[in-house]
């Protein structure tokens, strides 16, 4: 029989060359091997030597081959010739395009730089784009974090100097209990999949907290189908149970947190709630050994968690007292919170008991000697094998900042941060708030901004306000409305610019930000704002410049299009100055480089910014004699120094052997390419845990250029900057909030994490709108550009609205039915599907699957355009009117993060329409419609 079997080549020749670079099909930044035949891409696989993915590659990464050949790719610079929104353009040369942009930008730079609003999407080069905006002089710059995950980032920075995702990861080698909160499948997907596989293989348990049981939650050993927006209440109940049972790490709290720091306890004092500080300004504690008052970091000090201290008749109490009073309160008992959270009291107790058992009964030690910042040498490291991870699901609520802080407090009281088995920071984190800049907003004609746009405020003195108290930024970031908005408020830019509140702008300049469709709340309204004209027939937003690689929905609303390349056709820098690819045991960065040359008249956006800077002669980009410092982005990557010896890339500096610090190396990019597109420097053994307090790590970080000097610090369970805002709201200090915001600041900017009702729950009639509605990103898609991909479309070509069994049966739905979904802001009619593993009062759908007809080179009858839909049509950037004459932002009041997941709706069975509603008229695309049959084959 075997004699007649056909011969099968099990190892076919797939390429004649392999070029190694970095994937960009999501934010994972995995290493990839791009197989080439005849100079064209034939196949993409994972790079087994890469520190992020170690050869693993997902469906998105493999489908990159279809992304770089997508029919929707823009082909040349475009100038609008029809009405805005018509999609009518003419192709122009790059010389003309750059000249038009300079003709618009140069006059406002010379007169009023704030007339430029420059906001970017998921470009992963924010240190560079921010540097460009700073040298232009506009205060109006930020990226997409304000509508994505600023609550997660800022909550972590203000509490412990780092957060989840790019800031850190579980100790996959030692953790025994892994708990996820609000995690979908789109961020950090390959490392998490690899990590879950590793820990489950050795018997570790996984608990998933998410209203939706998909992806990681589907493989969890225990699923908590929580009510949206109540994660913080659940977490505080876990803290209550742990503190009540005494299952907290008192030694860790005393040594490494501000739990023992003394706080002014006199309600009549203008410094009530502030730390008692010494003459050097350091927070003070009582030394357990001597009983004396001393700085928290004094050599040999053993901070006391219980001692009080009196100064001038005022008693000062340790933060630990305040925490005990707060979280042992019966309001956080499981019986008090369970019904609201959609969890039984018994389940809350059981999870708290499991966390405590693993953290303390299964604790272990590693024989690694290390010396802490107080000079004490420890012979071992204590491991607590419980780790947590969280993402947008908990942060995209109006109470998300406090929820993120609550989760970090939970980690910290267990002693599971930066210890074996727990959560570990990735360089350049951890960084205390003091190591970050404050936001800057002072601008002047023809001058650069006075410092970085974004940062972390320490108190009201750092707010971005003009001399008259009005917002300095178009998005109102760093104002009394959202004081700690570390990433800006991209979702408010267009509506504020349209309203002229706080002022009018001249030019809106955006990159990779699909604001007329899936990246905007109130989608229909935003489209109207972009096309609205004043009484003179002029556009209310006078000029719009947009850059994208593809013919997205936003392209039609721009006046000038600067076409970007795809990710395999350009230089990119995944930098330690920005969003690096580090792992907990190593600092790492990476590049992208043109493994193929564009077959269109397109340029990498970062290079276009360099060319614009050269034409505008921006400082920072121009030498004293007026000549350009950099010719393109690759030149910038190699030769730019943010400070002496510190540049965008940390590897192969100087003579090619310097690490972290060193002079620019002309051959640096070549060395990266030779090394597989990345650089990695491992943390010395013994320095890789206890990073905030481990002097071996601190010294290593100085050598790497992360710090200029060691910066050990303690975790902020109690966030003093928040108390400073409360004091201002109580009438203390020179800088005062407007009266209508005083009560909100006093109640919500609590320095200890609290929980409050999501804003939409208190703004709409929840009996009329009883159902929670969410979106979630699928593992096979990353934001809008995935659904143009010929391979990925076969996985997610359309998206139903998933209903839980309770609602499915209550409304009598059957397979193939449609529903009318109504919110306080809008209405959609969409196909529905039944899903049992779902919170009983929650509906959800995949995000960004729906497309507008005419966009992305898809046919008008494509399933994405006829059955696909967005929940965005039901959401608004403003809350419904309260009757107080004000319109409140649909955002977290502390950071300004868009509260996408607060949405409340009602569901009704509906007649099936011809297509999902609302249906918008097709837009004309400059690239037209792609072929019905798309095939890409290289070689024989």
From TrEMBL:
<keyword id="KW-0479">Metal-binding</keyword>
<keyword id="KW-0004">4Fe-4S</keyword>
<keyword id="KW-0411">Iron-sulfur</keyword>
<dbReference type="GO" id="GO:0043546">
    <property type="term" value="F:molybdopterin cofactor binding"/>
</dbReference>
<comment type="similarity">
    <text>Belongs to the prokaryotic molybdopterin-containing oxidoreductase family.</text>
</comment>
<dbReference type="InterPro" id="IPR009010">
    <property type="entry name" value="Asp_de-COase-like_dom_sf"/>
</dbReference>
<dbReference type="Pfam" id="PF04879">
    <property type="entry name" value="Molybdop_Fe4S4"/>
</dbReference>
<keyword id="KW-0560">Oxidoreductase</keyword>
<dbReference type="InterPro" id="IPR006656">
    <property type="entry name" value="Mopterin_OxRdtase"/>
</dbReference>
<dbReference type="GO" id="GO:0046872">
    <property type="term" value="F:metal ion binding"/>
</dbReference>
<dbReference type="GO" id="GO:0016491">
    <property type="term" value="F:oxidoreductase activity"/>
</dbReference>
<dbReference type="InterPro" id="IPR006657">
    <property type="entry name" value="MoPterin_dinucl-bd_dom"/>
</dbReference>
<dbReference type="Pfam" id="PF01568">
    <property type="entry name" value="Molydop_binding"/>
</dbReference>
<feature type="domain" description="4Fe-4S Mo/W bis-MGD-type">
    <location>
        <begin position="16"/>
        <end position="72"/>
    </location>
</feature>
<keyword id="KW-0408">Iron</keyword>
<dbReference type="InterPro" id="IPR006963">
    <property type="entry name" value="Mopterin_OxRdtase_4Fe-4S_dom"/>
</dbReference>
<dbReference type="GO" id="GO:0051539">
    <property type="term" value="F:4 iron, 4 sulfur cluster binding"/>
</dbReference>
<feature type="region of interest" description="Disordered">
    <location>
        <begin position="914"/>
        <end position="940"/>
    </location>
</feature>
<dbReference type="Pfam" id="PF00384">
    <property type="entry name" value="Molybdopterin"/>
</dbReference>
<dbReference type="GO" id="GO:0030313">
    <property type="term" value="C:cell envelope"/>
</dbReference>
<protein>
    <submittedName>
        <fullName>Tetrathionate reductase subunit A</fullName>
        <ecNumber>1.8.-.-</ecNumber>
    </submittedName>
</protein>
